[in-house]
Each structure stands twice: as C-alpha cells, then as structure tokens.
Design a protein that fits this description.
Rossmann fold, alpha/beta, Dihydrodipicolinate Reductase, domain 2, single chain, 314 residues
C-alpha cells in the first residue's frame, strides 16, 4: 500500500512518517512540502528514507502511483487537492475542512470503525476533539445538560508557523487562553455527539500533550459507577484507550499512542448533591490526537486491523 503525504513539514507529518516507515504493509511513496523541496526525508525527519521531498501541485497527483493520500494542510486549503484525487483513492484529511461534511466519515476509529472501513474519504478528528469525544460519546445519554471542558495543550498544537502560541519566550511561566467560545473543536464535538459541549482551550509551555478537565451533570439517580461501566464497556478490546480510577497526568501519555480517561476513583470527583462529575483525560496531541489516529484510519480503510503498525499492549 503506497502512501503519499501532502504537507509533510509539520510535527504531525514527522510522526506519521515514522509510523508508515515501520508499518508492515505500507510504503512511503511521496512527500510534499513547499519549504522542504529538494531535501531528503532522512535529513529532516526521524527516518532512514532517502525519498526526496517535492513541491507537488494538485495537478501532479494523477501521475503518481499512490493508494492513499494524507492531507496535512492548514485549514481551508484542501479543496483543490481533494478535487484532483480520484474518487477511488483513499484520502485522510487531517484538517478541519471535512469534519462537518456528510460525505466524509468522521475518523474516530473506536467509535466509527464500520463506517471507516467502507469509506474513501475520512476526516481525521481534531486533537482536543479526540479527547473530548473519547470521554463523552459513551456516556452522552447519562448527561443532564452540556459538558464543560477546560483544555490545555502543549505548544506543538499551534503548529510550526511562528505565533505567540508557540513562542517559548511568550509561553515561559505562562498559560495562554484562546478562542474561549466557538473553537472549531467545540463545534466538532457538539456536532458529532449531537450534544452541547462548552470548551475553553489554553496553550502551555510544554511541547506535546493534552490535559482535559471535563465537568458534567449526571441525570437523576446516576453516579460514578454508571459512568465507569459505560466507559469500560465501550473500550474493552480497544487497547489505545484506558479507563482509570486515578486522574492521569500529561506525561502518562506523552510520546505514546494511548489516551487515558481517569479520575473515576478520586474522592472528590463526584458531588451527589449537585450530580456533578469531573473527569480528566490526557493524550498526546501529535499521536492519538493526530498521527496515530490517522494510521488507525488508514488501516481500517485498507482492510487491516486498526492497530497494525501501532505499538500497543493488550
């Protein structure tokens, strides 16, 4: 299976290149980046590949023998690429461009595996959205009203284009809030859950990882046990998602392909008088929040087990 990557320069592209290189059934066939044109992959990424990075245009793609294209472009730039790629060729889009498009499958692998297997157009979920979806979709029917999420991401989530959100001098000894309403991941999760979510993102001085503190009100008569049972049922047989009594820390999943939903055993996690439950979820924004999930989607849409080529333990 030959894989092409458009927009290879970013952090997620680097992680995906490593996963493709170690995959038993996939081969890296094309890399495109305007700023890295002419360089060899091994000179810029953690790879032994001698593949030369090109500056491909949409019209160049039809001449390439590629079975699946991954689009790692900034938001609102994918349209000409999608138009140029044959409908029979698999596309996984890492941007937000198609996460609300009914013609594309939302690629949260643990929830939508059957739909992903039958699709050639997959919208990879956002990094924050992955953590929120993982926590909330199995328990949405237990909730009374919106969930509220306080999110903190490492500055790799701001990408490689310089801004105050990835400037070490600005971030030092700091925590920066941004987009406190109508963040695209707030809209994404609310749309796919058909349940309102309020999201307040922040960027922190660490490089990679996400921490989410998720507050919700449970319906009358429900408690922590009901939530824990639903989560365990949803993720039994899905080793990349852990359900834990203790609240996870960012470092628990940093550099790993896993996501942990925890806090279920914390003494103060549930206030029965207000029916208020607080859970904590951590994941690596570059891995399970992006490249790992992309690999799960490529696997499923190619007829492989979702975890092929992804290091994990049962």
């Amino acid at each position: 299976m030959k894989i092409g990557l458009i927009g290879a320069r970013g952090y997620t592209g680097g992680e995906l290149i490593k996963l493709v290189e170690s995959h038993p059934e996939f081969e890296l066939a094309a890399l495109s980046s305007r700023k890295l044109e002419g360089k060899r992959a091994r000179d810029h990424f953690e790879t032994s590949s001698d593949l030369v990075i090109e500056n491909l245009a949409p019209e160049d793609l039809s001449s390439r023998e590629v079975d699946a294209w991954v689009l790692a472009l900034p938001n609102r730039l994918s349209a000409p690429w999608v138009e140029a790629i044959s409908p029979e060729t698999l596309i996984v889009d890492l941007s937000s461009d198609h996460r609300f498009d009914d013609g594309w499958v939302h690629g949260f692998a643990e929830r939508n595996a059957y739909e992903i297997k039958a699709s050639k157009r997959i919208a990879n979920p956002g990094c924050y959205a992955t953590g929120m979806m993982a926590t909330l979709w199995p328990i949405t029917d237990l909730l009374d009203g919106p969930a509220t999420v306080f999110g903190v991401s490492g500055f790799s989530g701001a990408g490689t284009t310089p801004s105050e959100k990835n400037d070490p001098d600005v971030l030092r000894d700091n925590l920066i809030p941004y987009a406190p309403t109508q963040h695209t991941h707030e809209k994404e999760v609310s749309h796919h859950l058909q349940h309102a979510v309020n999201f307040m993102p922040h960027v922190a001085p660490f490089f990679q990882g996400i921490c989410l503190t998720i507050t919700m009100t449970l319906k009358e008569g429900l408690g922590v046990g009901d939530v824990k049972s639903k989560l365990i049922e949803a993720y039994t047989g899905h080793p990349l998602i852990n359900v834990a009594d203790e609240a996870p820390r960012v470092r628990d999943n940093m550099g790993k392909h896993t996501l942990t939903i925890g806090g279920l055993g914390e003494a103060n996690a549930f206030d029965p008088n207000r029916r208020r439950l607080v859970l904590n979820t951590t994941l690596d924004n570059l891995l399970k929040g992006a490249a790992t999930q992309c690999m799960q989607n490529l696997n499923l849409a190619s007829g492989l087990d979702a975890l092929t080529g992804i290091p994990h333990s049962k």
